């Protein structure tokens, strides 16, 4: 039994006549009759009652009709889904994101991708940059959005955006002059820093012979801003995070210091050839 025989059988079952079914199938009647007899011989059962007026289904034929329709539907669905997966139109993509990528994802192109291809499922995994790089190395995720600086050989990357640091300043500490700050302006206020940049900040403070009070060090840039919103200190985070999460009672002030710049990157293993779905995701950025 093969799919073609099932298609022929269903055509006859639905038409109630071999001649009419042959016309629908664009074939001659004798080859159709032969295929039906071959199917009956293979299954060892009569499927059709043949009369001068047409055909009717035997009990076995009725049972096969239901199964045949299910099998053909399943074949078509499998064909469609496999083709879609191969073309990047369906499937599951595991994406790692850092907390400070807020504002960068999802973007307009990614929203368009998932709207046009609703069978694409995104599974998000949140971690810090090095945690996500470790997941990539272990093939636990397909791609990640991470932030410089980091050292990780064996990755292919695509730059997304570069931005400066900004200070989220509660009103009680907002005695600064001007809309932007210098690093030196931070010497007299309690600081809340994102651990991701702890070494960068400490190096800068040492170079400038500053000893500011670090009131809090945390693993999530959004947490740093939340503490600033609650007047626990001045949070130093990437500009996009400050703009997205800063609340009432705080002021966002960019920091004028070129070394305090960071780049969001899309990274994936250079050891793999991106699947069509992964490539569509990469192209959406």
TrEMBL record:
It comes from Levilactobacillus koreensis. Transmembrane segments: none annotated. Coiled coil: none annotated. PROSITE patterns: HTH_LYSR. Signal peptide: none annotated. This is LysR family transcriptional regulator. The lineage of its organism: Bacteria, Bacillati, Bacillota, Bacilli, Lactobacillales. Residues 1-58 form the HTH lysR-type domain. InterPro entries: LysR_HTH_N (IPR000847), LysR_subst-bd (IPR005119), WH-like_DNA-bd_sf (IPR036388), WH_DNA-bd_sf (IPR036390). It holds the Pfam family HTH_1. Belongs to the LysR transcriptional regulatory family.
């Amino acid at each position: 039994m093969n799919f073609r025989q099932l298609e022929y059988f269903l055509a006859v079952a639905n038409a109630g006549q071999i001649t009419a079914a042959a016309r629908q199938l664009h074939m001659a009647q004798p080859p159709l009759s032969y295929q039906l007899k071959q199917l009956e011989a293979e299954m060892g059962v009569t499927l059709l009652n043949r009369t001068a007026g047409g055909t009717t289904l035997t009990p076995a034929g009725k049972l096969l009709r239901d199964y045949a329709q299910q099998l053909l539907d399943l074949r078509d669905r499998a064909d469609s889904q496999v083709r879609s997966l191969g073309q990047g139109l369906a499937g599951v993509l595991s994406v790692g994101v850092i907390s400070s990528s807020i504002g960068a994802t999802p973007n307009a192109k990614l929203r368009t991708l998932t709207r046009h291809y609703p069978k694409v499922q995104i599974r998000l995994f949140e971690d810090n940059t090095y945690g996500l790089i470790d997941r990539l190395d272990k093939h636990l995720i397909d791609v990640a959005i991470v932030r410089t600086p980091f050292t990780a050989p064996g990755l292919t990357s695509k730059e997304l955006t570069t931005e400066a640091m900004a200070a989220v300043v509660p009103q009680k500490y907002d005695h600064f002059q001007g809309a932007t700050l210098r690093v030196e302006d931070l010497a007299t206020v309690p600081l809340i820093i994102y651990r991701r940049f702890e070494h960068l900040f400490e190096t800068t403070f040492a170079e400038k012979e500053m000893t500011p009070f670090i009131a809090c060090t945390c693993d999530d840039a959004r947490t740093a801003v939340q503490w600033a919103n609650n007047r626990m200190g001045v949070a130093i985070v990437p500009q996009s995070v400050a703009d997205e999460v800063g609340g009432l009672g705080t002021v966002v002030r960019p920091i004028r210091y070129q070394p305090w710049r960071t780049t969001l990157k899309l990274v994936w293993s250079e050891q793999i050839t991106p699947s069509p779905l992964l490539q569509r995701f990469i192209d959406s950025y």
